[in-house]
Amino acid sequence: MEYGFLSILPPLLAIVLAIATRQVIISLFIAVWLGASFLHASPITGFFRSVDTYMLESAADPWYAAILIFTMIIAGTLGLVTKAGGAQAIADALTKKVKTARGGMIAAWLMGMVIFFDDYSSCIIAGNTARPITDAVKVSREKLSYIIDSTAAPIATVALISTWIGFELGVIGDGYAAIGMENVPVYLIFLQSIPYRFYSIFAIALVLILAITMKDYGPMYNAEVRARTTGKLLRDGAEPLSATDTAVLQPEEGTPMRWYNFVIPVLVIIIATFVGLYVNGGGGEVGLMEAFGNADSTVVLLWSSSLGALVTVIMVLAQRIVPLQQSIDTLINGAKSVFPALIILVLAWSLSYVSGELGAADYLVSVVEKTGLGIAVMPLLIFIISCFMAFAMGTSWGTMGIVIPLAVPVAFALGGESFIIPTLAAVLTGAIFGDHCSPLSDTTILSSTGAGSDHIDHVRTQIPYALTGAVVSGIFGFIPAGLGVHPLISIVIGIVVLIIFVRLVGRTTADAESIEASQKK
Question: Does 517 score more than 70 pLDDT?
């Protein structure tokens, strides 16, 4: 059965309700229920299938279950690191060097760029590490979550080695298989597509531009003014997803603040992830890049996070900082802190499941195919539809997996083999837009968690910036790409446009701070 426009109604309803009511969990469940009701032609049956089929199967899926367990282990480990004083030691050391809000934002940006190998790890580790630093210089939690989000998926998707590579190489291969080209050098094609990943590149650049110029616009400006003039890092009534800064996880009085109690566990996780990707992917029998492409990233993340937790426990016990029972309790309390985020993840995956069964992706692609527009605008059109799909469904990988096998044959038919690369990139980077700013996206949720931000506040303040990057990508990236312009030219022009736009539209909080200071006098 074809559902037409009804197929995209549940994700649209979830987005509208979540933004309007700030009740993400309720909004997601209502959307899943609506979709299930369409599929089973009964709201009563739809209610029960929402729970016993879509939610249950989403949570039980090995890939999704691994992400849930990994998130809990990482959160528990960070909780123990915090309890042992390691996180505070790093924060204290960096705070001595970071004296301004500009320095705090640049430091957060750098942390996100350094943890390039996995977006989930970046959201949680970089967010928790940067939070004490940005808190000290009065950067709003909304701004921190935006910075973390913009250096998670956008950098992971273009990194030469990351947990994304296996999936991206797989969907690229699927796309070429759809046109009968099965033995293509997919990693080389992946590399060729990187200069065309305009949204990912511009999203990363925009964060640095905003930090250096100290300018903001839209709801983010109000959040920054509040933080800078009142010291309120969250708005009154906000409900941050993370609870890792609660008293139960704080170091006890007299706890030694040792930087290596943070650095060593994090390094263990990073090194173990790289080694695990190599081993799991068949390293020794195949080349390095092929091994990373073959690896099951979720299994590797479970290995590395578990090893990180074990090393942390051994370290705190060896130093007699936290007793064994208290270490276990702290790990559990840290894992509990991300429970709201886990519920949102399960519901978001359930909605993606329902949307897939309703045929939302096929409907959206059919709308594009019916436009009959010329070849020059195809990359732009594919980019737009990928952005919309990823935003509505909250899944970049789902968007990539669905659209690429459909888009590549269209691109090949219209423009030949050379036209496939910009089309592939349009899907791969357009999907990042949704992953970056959709309230249903897992990395958007985890960015709120890592930064300790109210989730909807994060989404509302981030969307204007995400739209800025998307518009610049479309006008100065994919339109020229459709006309055959070299992508490096588009990148340079796009970054210049972003700088000019921020300088013209953005406002600094300095004026508001001056007014506040004069009123106090």
Answer: no
